[in-house]
TrEMBL record:
Keywords: Membrane, Transmembrane, Transmembrane helix. This is DUF4190 domain-containing protein. It comes from the Bacteria. The chain crosses the membrane at residues 21-40, 46-64, 76-101. InterPro entries: MmpS_C (IPR038468). It comes from Clavibacter michiganensis. Gene3D superfamilies: MmpS1-5, C-terminal soluble domain (2.60.40.2880).
């Protein structure tokens, strides 16, 4: 009896390990670009979304088989840092811009008062507590940054609040001794979401004095109402 032995299988060549990770390199590039853009005003609103793309690319680079993961890890770290920096600086820049606008309005008011002094208006009989003015922000965006003002004969004060759900409402009182040269009332808003519409509205007793609407990425609106318009709405 003759026995035949099956030939031994040939050894399998080991899986070749790639020496580069293109997706990880792309994540590093996108993360660095978004990190640089995060510190530039206005551009940092867009760089946050670019940083999210870098995070996604880095995760893909980490799960690829037989690829070095060093570049993907670096890309993930840089992109996450860019996301955080974009959000923080977007809030800082927005508050700063609102403060600059408020300072410019107050400076213009002071210049007008110096150049053209006028006698204070005489309050109407029976009107001792001023006029109640309502502020409102509404729209399809889920939240917004709100900045609003209150005025007296001596100063204009500004308040700001971030991540406010809509509709957002506030109220203030226009004193009877305030004149048109003392300035008016201001309401501004900037949407936190990437898209949608945002409306600002200043009203007195349900009568709309000023209304503005904007739409699109990071929509922003500013409503201005002077003293005469507010008193006319209250009288009507």
């Amino acid at each position: 009896m003759t026995f035949r032995y099956a030939p031994e299988p040939e050894p399998t060549a080991p899986r070749e390990r790639k020496t580069s990770n293109g997706v990880g390199v792309a994540a590093v590039v996108v993360g660095v670009v978004s990190l640089v853009g995060a510190v530039i005003p206005i551009l940092n609103y867009v760089s946050g979304f670019l940083a999210v793309v870098g995070v996604v690319l880095a995760i893909i680079g980490l799960v690829l088989r037989d690829r070095p993961r060093g570049s993907a890890v670096v890309g993930l770290i840089v992109s996450v840092a860019a996301v955080i920096l974009s959000i923080v600086l977007a809030i800082v820049y927005t508050v700063g811009i609102a403060s600059l606008i408020g300072g410019a309005v107050e400076e213009a008011r002071e210049q007008a008062r110096t150049a053209e002094p006028v006698d204070p208006a005489t309050p109407e009989p029976g009107a001792t507590e001023g006029i109640t003015v309502d502020y409102e922000l509404s729209g399809s965006v889920p939240s917004a940054i709100a900045t609003w003002s209150s005025v007296t004969t001596d100063d204009i004060d500004y308040e700001s609040a971030t991540a406010q759900g809509l509709p957002f409402t506030r109220g203030t009182v226009l004193p009877d001794d305030v004149t048109p040269q003392d300035g008016g009332l201001t309401l501004s808003g900037m949407a936190d979401a990437a898209g949608g519409d945002l409306t600002c509205r200043i009203s007195v007793g349900g009568v709309i004095v000023e209304e503005r609407t904007a739409s699109g990425p990071q929509a922003s609106v500013v409503c201005l109402a002077d003293v005469d318009e507010i008193r006319a709405a209250a009288a009507g």
